[in-house]
Amino acid sequence: MDFLKDFVPTINVVSPGRINLIGEHTDYNLGYVLPTAIEKRILLKFQKNGTDTRCRVYSKDFDQGFEFFLTTIARSDNDWENYVLGVLNEITKLTDKVRGFDCVLESDLPLGSGLSSSAALECGMAFGLNELFDLELSKMDIVTLSQAAEHTYVGTQCGIMDQFASVMSEKGHMILLDCRSLEYDLISANLDPYKIIMLNTGVSHSLANSEYNKRKAECEKGVSILKAENPEIKSLRDVSMEMLERFEDKIDPVVYKRCHFIIKENQRVLEMAKVLKDRDIEKAGAILYEAHDGISKEYEVSCKESDFLVDFAKNNASVLGARQTGGGFGGCTLNIVHKDEAENFIDLAIDAYKKEFGRELMAFEASPSGGTSKI
Ligand code: GAF
Q1: What topology is assigned to 4-188 in CATH?
Q2: What is the pTM of this model?
Q3: Is the ipTM, as predicted for this complex, more than 0.85?
Q4: pLDDT for 225-274, tens place per residue?
Q5: 122 CB less than 6 Å from ligand 1?
Q6: Which position among 63, 162, 278, 280 bears the catalytic label?
Q7: What keywords were assigned to this record (predicted)?
Q8: Where are the domains of the chain?
Q9: Ligand 1 mutation target, pool 18, 21, 24, 27, most atoms within 8 A of CB
Q10: What is the DSSP string of 89-152?
Q11: Is 162 a catalytic residue?
């Protein structure tokens, strides 16, 4: 793009991806999650360009750029552009202080891998514009407007976990977040002598978006049935297992399975927070295996590649637990592995995956890191 030759950024921002130790699909059911940002990030560089409305954004990774005007923001046919446009659409509802700007993006965060590159881009864009134009948005404004951008421009009716983790994380900690009150507690992520090893299946299914929204609708269906006799229920967060079981014959079996998973998953998050505080890492691993079973059989958002890697982990004595992390249908598995055996485990997993699927497995250690910030 023509602006690149004279580009002199004045604001540089890094915006991280996230892992989620436990609490999948509980966020939009207003339950609990336990994520953290990681040291894989998108770098966003900004300059004002002296115009009132002309904006230009270039992605080094895609070697693609696009231009738009603040006066005519609209959805694009090119998916990644919608993360940017969605944020501009939301920000301009809150303030009239944004003017023309240029932005260059580059990333070491794998896309479509369940590590929330989308939230990282949205939050980094909002954070950078807030700095560039002194918009006086709070961190929570950035979180909520980025989530709204995902709803309106991307079309995923996501919960708040990814944007919250991307912005609010603190180095060395997991965030125990109550997705209803938005109160949170920082919990030490020190698992020594174990590490978190991520295995990236390299698979990202196109049905993820539609299936995601379908799961959300199934949970809402469950709530509407339970609510008929228990008007105090607002979300699955308010439903106990005993209550659900009493309704078993009134609820469609698929919807029942989904609700059962969410209620159990909320319990697992709270239990995980406790075992982390007690430093009972073995128990933490067992919770991961149990959660993956639910992800695969009850919530049905796994895939053969993730199931293979979790089974592979189960047969390796250096691994305490593993599960698929993120929205589902591929992405990464999260593994708690003894630090002395981590490299060996990765090598064995790469070989086994290649043999089974004929494709490369990417692996990395996830280090809990701080949230979106200026550098
Ligand atoms: C995706 C969504 F964006 C999150 O809000 C969350 O629901 C997650 O899937 C599943 O836990 O990352």
Answers
A1: Ribosomal Protein S5; domain 2 (3.30.230)
A2: 0.96
A3: yes
A4: 999 989 999 999 999 999 999 999 999 999 999 999 999 999 999 999 99
A5: no
A6: 162
A7: Transferase
A8: 4-188
A9: 27
A10: HHHHHH-S----EEEEEEE-SPTTSSS-HHHHHHHHHHHHHHHHTT----HHHHHHHHHHHIII
A11: yes
